[in-house]
Design goal:
3 helices; two-stranded antiparallel ribbon; 98 residues; alpha+beta
Amino acid sequence: MENIVELFERLAREREEGLKVNPRYDIDKLADDNGEIRIYFNSNVEYEMYLDGKGVIGSTERFLDTDVFCNVHKDRIEKLTDGETLAHIAALSSNNDV
């Protein structure tokens, strides 16, 4: 049976290998069966920007009853930063960039 240290070491190795094969490994791992990731928006303004197709940054953490969040398809997420917590969501067209 694996102890916690061995588990984290194995997961780190798997992630490293996964990123070699697929640069979007982290995004794919976070996505549910529908290919979506639950994203928290800091304000209604950022959520409206997302709905309007503009580029915006959301978070993969912090889901409280009062939070503004929705499921975002992984194809719209450009990258994850800050320990996989900040999701950089692409604009739908270059005219909508933030």
